[in-house]
Specification:
α7 crosses α11. Helices cover 27% and strands 22% of the residues. The protein has eleven helices and 15 strands. The protein is elongated and about 65 Å long. By secondary structure, it is an alpha+beta fold. The strands form three sheets. Strands 10-9-15-14-13-12-11 form a seven-stranded mixed beta sheet. It folds into two domains: 120 residues, Roll (FAS1 domain); 132 residues, FAS1 domain (Roll), CATH 2.30.180.
Length: 323
């Protein structure tokens, strides 16, 4: 069967032949350069400005934090137009916490409010000595060494993330607020209360290394004089050598901070009071005006309650006779 060539195609062919005749002799054929077809790249999608809560959810590294904020009913505090800053621990930071540490919803809410400030904290304000007041009411301390910026004992590990109503600073560690001198910890043992307060991280490590940590989970009652972090960093060198010589010395030193069988509150302390410690030696209390000393250590916070006793914070490590 013969095919009929349509009129438009014939017209196009005629025009092409005419153009070729008008151009004169044909040039010697050469290999034609490959035709480059220009492609139009798809535009990179631009993220729409979002508030701090939605920015955290979209970032992908804060799934645990986002869930925790929802459980603690704090997500709404990161929305709206009011300025806010959150120091945001990554999923990996939460995974490093001791199991069950934040199972209590009230404690979880306290910890999360300790990471949030009701203001937009700028990067240039995060310099050594600066403080940031949190929703919990406590202040975070900022320190800087070169380009490394720390908030308490956590490090900012990424460029700040801006949101419509504030800023997000990424942390490598969960910040733990100081334990309160109240009955809020009445369901937690002394060991568990220490674990939730970053002031006692070295003390907790020492307690766990010796087994005293397990002992302080017992029925009690116990009175513990707990050295804060700086107390360990200021130990005299001979004592440091003794402490790290073996768990036996550690056990004696730590038991010297424990009075077993008694829950002594601040109101119970009297001048020249003598109490026997779990280590076997005695501690003498003394009064200097409004200050109470236990041995040579100053009591700087009193009556942190626990289910099996009470904790008093001291500024020095107590040392029993080690001879």
């Amino acid at each position: 069967m013969r095919r009929t060539v349509s009129l438009p195609i014939l017209l196009i062919l005629s025009l092409l032949l005419a153009a070729c005749s008008a151009s004169g002799p044909r040039p010697t054929p050469t290999t034609a350069a490959p035709t480059v077809i220009a492609t139009i790249a798809e535009p990179t999608p631009t993220l729409q400005p979002m508030d701090v809560a939605d920015t955290l959810a979209a970032a992908g590294d804060f799934a645990t934090l986002v869930t925790a904020l929802q459980v603690a009913n704090l997500s709404e505090s990161l929305k709206g137009s009011d300025p806010v800053t959150i120091f945001a621990p990554t999923d990996q930071a939460f995974a490093a916490l001791a199991p069950g540490l934040l199972d209590n919803q009230d404690r979880l809410a306290e910890v999360l409010r300790y990471h949030i400030a009701a203001t937009r904290v700028t990067s240039d304000s995060l310099t050594s000595g600066a403080t940031v007041k949190t929703l919990l009411g406590n202040e975070l301390k900022v320190s800087q060494e070169g380009k490394i910026i720390k908030v308490n004992d956590a490090t900012i590990i990424a460029t700040p993330i801006q949101a419509t109503n504030g800023v997000i600073y990424v942390l490598d560690k969960v910040l733990l607020p100081p334990a309160k001198a109240s009955a809020a910890n009445s369901k937690a043992t002394i060991s568990e209360v220490l674990l939730t307060d970053e002031r006692f991280s070295t003390l907790v490590d020492a307690l766990k290394a010796t087994g005293v940590y397990t002992e302080l989970q017992g029925a009690g009652p116990f009175t513990l004089f707990a050295p804060e972090q700086d107390a360990f960093s200021n130990l005299p060198s001979p004592l440091v050598g003794s402490l790290f010589r073996g768990p036996e010395v550690w056990t004696r030193v730590l038991n010297y901070h424990v009075i077993s069988g008694k829950k002594l509150l601040a109101a119970d302390f009297t001048d020249q009071q003598v109490e026997q410690t779990l280590e076997g030696s005695t501690l003498v209390f003394s009064k200097q005006g409004a200050t109470t000393l236990v041995g040579e250590a100053k009591i700087i916070q009193t009556d942190i309650q626990a289910s099996n006793g009470v904790i008093h914070v001291i500024d020095k490590v107590l040392v029993p006779p080690l001879d």
